[in-house]
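Design request, tokens follow.
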């Protein structure tokens, strides 16, 4: 008699297991259909669209920022090059002035040498020897 009772109990536990699985599936279905869960799912679906727009907007901002930095770099470079050219021109003018002074001083020194030689010749001719 014990065997027939075991056979009867096995289908009952199997039926209870089926009911447990069905209840679990129903609970999962309720969680998926829940308004809070659906709102969360909608939020997740909207995020990728927002990130695309944010990515596009950030790309445009990055390009504008790059363009502005590029323009500022060009302006600063142009100012530096202009300043260097100005310094070169000023240096050339100063060198020209120094060169002309040296040439005039060289002429003065040569004239003084000639005068010194003339004075020595005159002294030698006049017979004054020291």
């Amino acid at each position: 008699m014990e065997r027939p009772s075991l056979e009867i109990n096995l289908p009952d536990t199997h039926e209870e297991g089926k009911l447990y699985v069905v209840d679990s599936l129903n609970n999962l279905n309720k969680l998926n259909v829940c308004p809070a869960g659906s709102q969360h799912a909608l939020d997740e679906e909207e995020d990728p669209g927002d990130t695309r727009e944010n990515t596009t907007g950030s790309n445009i901002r990055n390009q504008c920022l790059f363009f502005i930095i590029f323009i500022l770099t060009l302006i600063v470079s142009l100012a530096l090059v202009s300043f260097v050219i100005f310094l070169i021109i000023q240096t050339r003018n100063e060198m020209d002035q120094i060169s002309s002074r040296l040439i005039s001083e060289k002429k003065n020194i040569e004239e003084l040498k000639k005068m010194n030689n003339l004075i020595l010749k005159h002294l030698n001719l006049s017979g004054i020897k020291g």
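Comment from the thread starter after seeing the answer: thanks! The radius of gyration is 53 Å.
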